[in-house]
Write a structure and sequence with these properties.
Layout: H1 5-29, H2 34-59, H3 62-91, H4 95-121, E1 127-131, E2 134-138, H5 146-166, H6 170-189, H7 194-205, H8 207-220
Antiparallel strand pairs: 1-2
Helix pairs in contact: 1-2, 1-8, 2-3, 2-7, 2-8, 3-4, 3-5, 4-5, 5-6, 6-7
């Protein structure tokens, strides 16, 4: 979470067991819901990583900062643009949309690798700072120009939201709308710490998916 180590660990502690329950229940409703069931668990682990980022910043520990920040960025930069299209593809009954989502999944994986791998492979690529009680992840070597940074976010949002809104399932489109609103609020009020704050909002919204999966599991249960 974007405000403190305590808050990050607390949110992670809530989301990890929720994610475990979601995974167990997803098995009852079919494999197609397993990717969505991963969201709360993955968001929980991401928040725990950010908790260690806070600790590393406070203790001036560069090794912990590198590992924990790259752990956080693994989810924000690679996991989410890759998983969003895959999760919609897995549960999509319409075959034409499924083919489109398959191609979007490939794009999401490749784009995620493109924006994540430099932070791991190139020393000093990512700088972590604190601004207004939030963590800011900077990649100045690549994104010095506002239009480049803006376009990176636009492509990212297009992959994630494009996949979610492409679903023919109402529950998924509701989740897409919630994510879109959180994106707009983050961009409007917390642009200086966009990555951290949007992941915080999305982490909370992932709890919605547990309810969605519980409903699917209830319908799939034998009477």
């Amino acid at each position: 979470m974007c405000f403190s180590a305590t808050a990050s660990f607390a949110l992670g502690g809530v989301l990890v067991p929720i994610g475990v329950v979601a995974l167990v229940k997803a098995r009852q409703s079919g494999w197609q819901w397993l990717p969505f069931a991963l969201y709360p668990l993955a968001f929980g682990l991401q928040q725990i990583c950010e908790g260690f980022v806070w600790i590393a910043m406070q203790n001036s520990d560069p090794d912990m900062l590198f590992c924990s920040s790259r752990g956080f960025l693994f989810y924000s930069h690679f996991f989410w643009p890759a998983l969003a299209p895959i999760s919609v593809w897995a549960c999509e009954p319409d075959q034409k949309r499924k083919r489109w989502l398959g191609w979007l999944s490939v794009i999401g994986v490749l784009y995620g690798l493109l924006i994540y791998l430099p932070s791991v492979l190139i020393p000093g690529w990512t700088i972590v700072e604190i601004a207004e009680r939030s963590l800011v992840y900077k990649t100045p070597e690549l994104y010095d120009y506002p239009i480049t940074r803006l376009m990176t976010r636009v492509v990212y949002a297009a992959i994630v939201l494009g996949a979610l809104f492409s679903s023919t399932r109402n529950a998924v489109r509701v989740f897409a709308l919630l994510i879109a609103v959180s994106l707009g609020l983050t961009f409007a009020f917390f642009a200086y710490a966009f990555i951290s704050v949007w992941c915080f909002f999305a982490a909370i919204l992932s709890i919605y998916l547990l309810g969605m999966i519980l409903r699917k599991a209830g319908r799939a249960a034998p009477s």
